[in-house]
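User: Please predict the structure of the protein below. I'd like the answer in structure-token form so I can feed it into my own downstream comparison script.

Assistant: Understood. Taking the following sequence of 134 residues as input:
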Amino acid sequence: MRRLALTALALLCSGCASVATWTASDASLAHFLQDRRTHCETLPRAYGGLFFDYCWLDSEPQRIYGSAPMVLLLADGLLSALADTAALPVTLVQQRRLGDIPLRRQPAGAPPPVQDTGADSPLSDDILPAEPVP
């Protein structure tokens, strides 16, 4: 019985958004969400599975309901949050190195979007005072 439960869990998780964002190419993730006409502009790599589900839910209504039952997307979002938390050490490095995954199609000949390198990030050390405030 235990093996059956583990096998079922493995099969269910093989389609979860976290695994998809870790294994699929950036182009295929963008194409999938563009096909559903998402309103998201980018997909972060850190907590990518959770945001992938959010972007899917933030699509045009006729593109959501015909592709997956709402309850499965919500359940997958919760499981993706747990899986993404476990993978956070790896995905934070990828986020810093590669930046967000752009989801909008760029016009032909347009330069690629500029990724935030972190130098002007609100989390950078530049905004912290050099000396403690008395």
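That's the full token string. The first strand starts at residue 42 and ends at 43.
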